Amino acid sequence: MPAQPSSPLTDLARAYGVATDYWDWKGNHVVVSDETIAAVLAALDIDTSTPDAVAKALADKQIEPWRRPLPRVVVLREGWTPWVPVHVSEGTEIAAELELEDGGRRPVPRVEHWIEPREIDGVRVAELTVELPGDLPLGYHRLVVRAGEGAHTAPVIVTPQRLELGESISKDRAWGLTTQLYAVRSARSWGIGDAADLAELGTWAARQGADFVLVNPVHAAEPIPTMEPSPYLPTSRRFVNPMYIRVEEVAEMGYLSAAEHQLIEWHSDDARRLNGLPQLDRDGSWQSKRAALRMLFRAEHTHRRTREFEEFCAREGQALVDFATWCAIAVDRGLPWQEWPPELRMPHSEAVTAERERLADEVEFQCWLQWIVQTQLADADQEMRAAGMRIGTIHDLAVGVHPDGADAWALGDVLAQGISVGAPPDDYNQLGQDWSQPPWRPDRLADSGYAPFRDMIRSLLRMAGGLRVDHIIGLFRLWWLPAGQSPTTGTYVRYDHEALIGILALEAQRAGAVIIGEDLGTVEDWVRSYLTERGILGTSILWFEREGDRPKPPETYRALCLASVTTHDLPPTAGYLQGEHIAVRHELGLLTRPLEEEIAEDDAQRESMLHALRERGLLKQTSTVEEQVDALHRFLTWSPSRLLGVSINDLVGDVRTINQPGTDEEYPNWRLPLADGDHQPLLLDDVMVSRRAKRLIRAVNQRDTR
Description:
There is one protein chain. The protein contains 22 helices and 27 strands. The chain has an 8-stranded parallel sheet. The longest helix has about 30 residues.
């Protein structure tokens, strides 16, 4: 066990929300080493190199609020009347008001609350107090305090007490499909599932009674080869991968010449050959699409389309310009950006401005791609709702971004350097995980008024009726790993969850969307209660819902959650029933216990589940894997969970794990197309006529007839 950290270092760490100890997945108490604590604090620009440095840093932290005229940001729930401290020179008179989001103004009264003045940096500083009114509208406002001849400001964010489900969902459970969009290809796909495939899948599913399609993150990837296959390691979470564009549905197709149409046909023929490959070829698909889209970008544009594009660019603002600039420089100079000339590594330098002008055509092309792909995904969502879905698309928000990506370049000042996000060991990832992603810095995020977080959520919800937040526990605390360290030697760093969850609820309420938090793994007990209080759905995976050595009765599941049999980090249900997850982890050397012990425990767990199904009359004594898959989903329909997810892989009997945590190139993570039980690739067209799919859908659609 690591040595107990020194007391001053412990106090300093806790003052910055850095855990100095924790309880692991086996219930053991772990003390974090001094080395880890020092490395994490260094990423927050805290010097701990000597005892004097630690003492100074702790003293500075304690008086930090007194050095600020106003807090970094004030986040409150509607109806709350918080007191806000104002620090000014002793004897200074103040007057405060709120500038509301809609342009209105509200006076903010002083509160008589005496605090003894303190001497800060040689100046006597008084703490005065103002009280925000309890009837403020939801939204983003600004507190303005005039003190003497100067003025100080702070963002004020008013969030909902609770995000309420829509009336139809609150009264009647909804079920839907969960899928990796890139893997669901039709005969018209260019080797990769796209926005048109999503619309087609969703329209078909709506006719089967489904109310949503939950897809993998569609965040932007690298604009040049090699494209990162993991949708959970994007180059940007604010912007979208143009790989999902359906070329033929871009309006400018109608203005091409016959010769240009023929060229696009050649590109599409090349790309459609990729549909038959056993693994996905993102780079090959994008090479063909990019060439075709370049032609469409250069084609004639109507005034109406030009106006729509200009409005999109104005709405997305500087963030779009920065992202497009990064993409243009990457296309011109290659990646990683850390190898660009030093003056190009700073997004707002004069050199970058000059480079943007030199590459103006490519920058505009990248902006245009974002307009097209976001419009097509938003249209797909609307088509699904028009077909009868109550929710439509549910997009997925990844935990973080690639360290060599656009967000790491453009938002570097709000990301921690020399740190990676991961997870400590747990039952399914016994070596821990390193996700290779730089985390938000809690202090810098607050300094920005949470604008990057807000804009990211808002952008995704423009294309969806719901949002799944992967590892939502990361909005409470994240496992920080100092560079080069093992996942077992990290520690937790806390975030202002009241602010982050509040903003998430605010944006969702404005969009009329549902929010699902993936709250699996090591979770503090109070967190799930807090999420329920705020109206955020949790996640229940059948295999993880157990009471001792028995599966939980479905009637005891949480009501406010998305329940499903499986998830993308486990094999599809047919594969899980056949022990695919044990075989793969053994083959890759990811088990920490003997194989026989793992198999015995897995057999016992699986048999206990099948026994419960037999007890409930859902299975006969002898049954096929297909019958077991149907029975497991029928079992879930007896839960009170408001949402029920059905993996499209389960519709067709796929057995292969989509992603094996703890691996990179050792397993074809995120590269497998939809396939049947014999690993033969399937198209969306096959799914929609599958007898197996229709049988499982009937099981899910059945009402409670126990």
